Every structure is written in structure tokens, then in C-alpha cells.
Amino acid sequence: MPGEAPSSDSSSSSSSSSSSSSSSSSGDTPDTPDNPAPTPTRRRLPKVKNLQTPDERVDEDINVAKFYLNRGNYIAAYLRSKDAVKTEPNYAETHFSLAQAAEKMKKTDEAKAEYSAYLKLSPGGDNAKAAQKALESLH
């Protein structure tokens, strides 16, 4: 009977239950643009702490830049050195590393500027003679 609640009588519900069970199973519908699959809730992960201090990061950047420079990968050496300078602009070794890579890449003006920055920050440093010699050869 239309408008009435379904009865619990098994004889009348058997015919309606077979037709209603196929149409009322909304959880079994295929994923379509109209019925997207429910997205699972995402768990928030804890914030990652700095694994390296800036000094450790710079030392690693310089070591990797030297590795790349010795292997002839000047672009990678240049980029790692640039990162080191960005992280620690007052550390002379970063400027020396960047100057070497820039020189190999024929970026003469940048190499001069970086060798000069090295000499300004560390006039008596380990690489001072090499930086001075490189500057003289670039002029």
C-alpha cells in the first residue's frame, strides 16, 4: 500500500525486499565522477626537527661541491656552493667554493667577486694564496 510503512509480514516484504535491496545499497555503488570514493582522514605527522645545524649543512654543501668539481660536474658544484653561501654568507670557504665553480663555468665576473669576498672575509686563510693567484689570472 502506497504511503504506508512496510509491514514486518514476511510474505509481503519478500517481494519488496528483493527490489529494495538492490536499489538501496548506496555503499556498493561504483566510483564515478558523481559518486567519488570517500577520502580517508589524514593523520598529521609531527614536525621534523632540524637534523643538521646550519654549520653542518654548509660543511656538507662544500664537501659535495668539491666532489662535483673534481668529477667535472660544474653546474652541480656551483649550485651546492650557492646554497652554502646563502646559508652562511659570512663563511669564507663558501665563497671560495663558489668562486672555483664559477671560474670553471666561465662566469669570470662572479668568480672575481667571490674570490674577493673570500679574501675580504679571510685574508690569511688556507686558500688565500690560491684565491689571490686566481684573481690575478682572471684579470
Task: Report the CATH C-level class of the domain at 54-138.
Answer: Mainly Alpha
CATH superfamily of the domain at 54-138: Tetratricopeptide repeat domain
CATH architecture of the domain at 54-138: Alpha Horseshoe
CATH T-level topology of the domain at 54-138: Serine Threonine Protein Phosphatase 5, Tetratricopeptide repeat
Radius of gyration: 35 Å
In DSSP terms (H or I, runs of 4 or more residues), the helix count works out at: 6
Give the integer mean of the pLDDT values: 83
- End-to-end separation in angstroms reads 102 Å
Low-confidence stretches: 9-25
Give a topology summary.
Layout: H1 10-23, H2 54-71, H3 74-87, H4 92-104, H5 108-121, H6 128-138
Helix pairs in contact: 2-3, 2-4, 3-4, 4-5, 5-6
Structure description:
This protein has helices at residues 10-23, 54-71, 74-87, 92-104, 108-121, 128-138. The chain has 139 residues and is mostly helical. It has a domain at 54-138: Serine Threonine Protein Phosphatase 5, Tetratricopeptide repeat, CATH 1.25.40. The longest helix is centred in the middle third of the chain and has 18 residues, at 54-71. The N and C termini lie far apart (102 Å).
